[in-house]
Specification:
- The protein is an alpha+beta fold.
- It folds into two domains: 95 residues, DNA Primase, Chain A (Alpha-Beta Complex); 175 residues, no CATH class.
- A hairpin with a 5-residue loop joins β3 and β4.
- The longest helix has 16 residues.
- It is elongated, with a radius of gyration of 22 Å.
């Protein structure tokens, strides 16, 4: 039996239920614009398509109401019931099918196949490969790497004190141009996706199997951080607050034997737009993308890398 909580956990607190249903009525439009815990007024197909539908996150569930109709309100499942004309278990099954949630199945991001449970194996400590990539000293105009560092080494740099002073200095600057110049001139950076002879896509020596997703101007960093760490498809390898203090750098694994770096980026960017209603920095499609390294005492690294 599929529970409401199972669906809420996989639909960004029910927001994706509204998004999916509204796209049925308005297929060529951006149907939801999220800002923090509240969405801008959207078209309401149950009120003559007027821009009166309000969605607000209340105790981790997106509730709906209408600016004109005081009695039109409820939770995502009430809204879905209006559209599908179903209730109870039938509605849960319909949402599971329509939103491709695959609750109760083993699945992979790039496949619709259900996977059987693996046969039990004898317990043994697996060997964990720690990705390595190029590390560059400031300024960003320096395109030749200083060294090759591992994910753990960069984690320790970000977590400790080397970048504390320059990060605080950047975040105290109000003028965007001045902040941009400081970041470009004073921040060391890494190319998480690989090692390079020089910072240029054509000078790639080895791909690290990592991809950087850059989120800018996020209203609630902790909420997004929790969501990314609990994402059902992607295992977080490294996650830290950006130099500016209002964004996140999400480092995840990809398998370039399955597809190209660019194809992975485009697919994941579309996934994030659909699931989290967020646009990501398109520079992530470049293999040689420079990622500035700030101070973040609460930087997250996948625990498997610390159990060596």
């Amino acid at each position: 039996m599929i529970k409401e909580k199972d669906i809420l956990d996989k639909t960004h607190y029910g927001l994706n239920i509204y998004s999916h249903i509204l796209h049925e009525y308005y297929p060529d439009e951006v149907v939801i614009r999220l800002s923090g815990k509240e969405c801008d007024p959207a078209k309401n197909p149950f009120n003559e398509n007027k821009l009166t539908l309000k969605l607000i996150n209340v105790d981790w569930v997106f509730m709906y109401s209408d600016l004109e109709q005081s009695n039109f309100k409820g939770n995502p499942f009430d809204f879905a019931a209006l559209h599908y004309k179903l209730t109870g278990d039938e509605l849960m099954e319909k949402l599971n099918e329509e939103l491709h949630l695959r609750i109760g199945e083993k699945h992979h991001f790039y496949s619709n196949r259900a996977f059987p449970e693996p046969a039990p194996k004898e317990e043994s400590k697996p060997t964990v490969h720690i990705p390595k990539f190029s590390y560059f000293k400031a300024p960003v105009s320096n395109i030749y790497p200083k060294n090759t560092l591992s994910l753990v080494e960069v984690y320790e740099l970000i977590k400790s004190t080397p970048y504390t002073s320059i990060t605080e200095q950047l975040r105290a600057i109000q003028a965007k141009d001045e902040a941009r110049k400081l970041k470009a001139s004073k921040f060391d950076y890494a190319t998480f996706s690989g090692t390079f002879e020089k910072r240029n896509d054509k000078a790639l020596l080895n791909h690290s199997g990592l991809l950087t997703i850059d989120f800018d101007h996020i209203a609630n960093l902790q909420q997004l951080k929790n969501q990314l760490l609990n994402d059902e498809y992607f295992e977080t390898e490294l996650l830290f607050v950006s130099p500016s203090g209002d964004g996140l750098k999400w480092i995840i694994s990809i398998d370039i034997t399955e597809s190209t770096h660019q194809n992975f980026f485009n697919a994941i960017a579309n996934y994030i737009k659909e699931v989290y209603q967020l646009e990501v920095d398109k520079s992530g499609k470049d293999v040689s993308r420079a990622c500035f390294l700030p101070s973040d005492p609460e930087v997250f690294i996948n625990p498997k890398y610390l159990q060596q």
